[in-house]
Hints:
Elements: H1 3-7, H2 13-21, H3 27-35, E1 40-41, E2 46-47, H4 51-55, E3 61-62, H5 68-82, E4 85-88, H6 92-101, E5 106-108, E6 113-116, E7 124-131, H7 137-149, E8 152-157, H8 165-169, H9 172-176, E9 180-185, H10 191-196, E10 203-207, H11 219-226, E11 233-235, H12 241-257
Parallel strand pairs: 3-4, 7-8, 7-9, 9-10, 10-11
Antiparallel strand pairs: 1-2, 4-6, 5-6
Amino acid sequence: MDAKIMDEGIMDARKILEKVKEGQMSVDDAEQYFRRQPFEELGFAKLDTHRQLRSGFAEVIFCSGKTDSHLLDIFGRLYEENGEAFGTRASKEQYGLIKSHYPKAQYDPVSRIIKIEKEGKAHKGKVAVCTAGTADIPVAEEAAQTAEYFGAAVERIYDIGVSGLHRLLSKLDVIQKANCVIAAAGMEGALASVLGGLVDKPVIAVPTSVGYGANLHGLSALLTMINSCANGVAVVNIDNGFGAGYLSVQINRLAIRE
């Protein structure tokens, strides 16, 4: 297969077929591309190199708990394959390791995300990421930056919890224009229900482990959100900003197509 084509990394099926149609890729090369092993065996890991072809999202790295050598190998291979890489729950020490080998790597200590992004990436549609309080921002930023990495335009509306409802109402016009709304809240987790009753778009509720003893590390907020009386509210796991951001992009993409 042509080296230039291989250097482009993972392409979606439509791009490959367009290259065949335009004469930029032979039928044999396209067939070989689709026959490539759908994962790369590293011994300690099997990298899902065809995930973007199947789902539209390249594989992401959960950094916490990985050894330095494993993390470095996985990050490097995904970067070489896709031209970018994205890792969640990374420590400052892990960032230092990646940065020493890949100077383009960026790190956000709030969300604990480490990434290398392609330049000039377009951000389309709109996802509104809301928090009840400022203590919920680390989880919200994980969601927001995940959504941005995968191509969504994000509007951040922070500290609009129900203890001061006028703050939320002052931003309601912005929130209502979004294709999807993420609500990150700890304590009793009421923000998701309030938003669910004010917008005509899906609300993804993210319970956070913010709160005093009876919050039970986010369990109280989780139960409140699951038991929401507002329609159109779906719930991800406690502190799962990544899951909320990922799901919001899928919803946003559907809205853009329509």
